[in-house]
Specification:
Blueprint lengths: L1 H13 L15 H6 L6 E9 L7 H12 L5 E9 L5 E8 L2 H12 L5 H6 E12 L5 E3 L8 E8 L5 H18 L3 E9 L5 E8 L2 H11 L3 H7 L10 E6 L2
Antiparallel strand pairs: 1-3, 1-4, 2-3, 2-9, 4-7, 5-7, 6-8, 6-9, 7-8
Helix pairs in contact: 1-7, 6-8
Length: 246
């Protein structure tokens, strides 16, 4: 039963990964920047909650902090999202020129007095990692994007030596979902630099409800079952829905 539930949940993970509010570059160029990421560039993903007393001031404080972050060596872009279901949950994604730049910036950020007020608002870090686009068709786009699309973020572990099988089965499944469900706009799949068996997906949906419908209707489809063979069902996954931080 638990395994079946996990397989069902993974459907939404499939359709997951990326969109966010840019700071130093025009919002309309955000997706172009991610889609055009170079081989050496890495994405830094942070999923975190803020303290209750920071809810009213966090948006403005976050903007100022991200502006400051844009002055760091190797910074390319940053985007921020706010959870649909949890008012204290946020998602940040930063693009860096290299892993070295990202790691150096992380050390500098943690001790930078300019961001001390921002760091004090953070309650819990739920996920933090550096990732790169998968080697084969990391970005799959199916339908026209819109400003009010919902972002689905998900993590999942795959079994050892199963990446090639996943890549072979991923595209036919995603193409099917994109054709049959117009609300499914785009999916971007990345791989953890530190933990290769960890994949992070970000998808764009017209609405959250459509993703739920797909979960119910596709769980027994042959394309999905073939894709799910790669998953390590013993590992816990994260799945959340977000909108742009305005």
């Amino acid at each position: 039963m638990i395994k079946a539930i996990r397989i069902l949940t993974v459907v939404s993970f499939l359709t997951a990964f990326y969109s966010i509010n840019k700071i130093s570059i025009n919002k309309n160029t955000t997706l172009k920047i991610m889609n055009a990421a170079t081989e050496n560039q890495v994405f830094e993903i942070a999923l975190y909650t803020i303290k209750d007393e920071a809810k009213d001031t966090f948006t403005e404080l976050s903007r100022k902090t991200m502006d400051h972050l844009s002055t760091f060596q190797g910074f390319v872009s940053v985007e921020n999202y706010h959870s649909i279901s949890d008012p204290q949950l946020y998602l940040d994604l930063v693009l860096w020129e290299s892993l070295d730049d990202a790691l150096e910036a992380q050390k500098k950020f943690e001790s930078d007095p300019e961001v001390s007020d921002y760091l004090k608002t953070i309650d819990t870090i739920k996920f933090f990692d550096h990732v790169k686009m998968i080697s084969k068709n990391g970005v799959l786009k199916f339908n026209e994007l819109a400003e009010n699309d919902v972002l689905e973020f998900a993590t999942i572990y795959i079994n050892d030596n199963s990446l090639e099988q996943l890549l072979e089965s991923r595209e036919p499944l995603m193409n099917y979902i994109g054709k049959e469900y117009p609300a499914f706009k785009e999916v971007i799949t990345t791989q953890s630099v530190k933990t290769p068996n960890l994949l992070i997906d970000i998808a764009r949906w017209g609405n959250k409800e459509s993703c739920g419908i797909v979960q119910q209707e596709i769980e027994s489809h042959e394309l999905f079952m073939n894709f799910a063979k790669s998953f390590d069902m013993e590992k816990e996954m994260i799945m959340e829905f977000f909108t742009k931080l305005k």
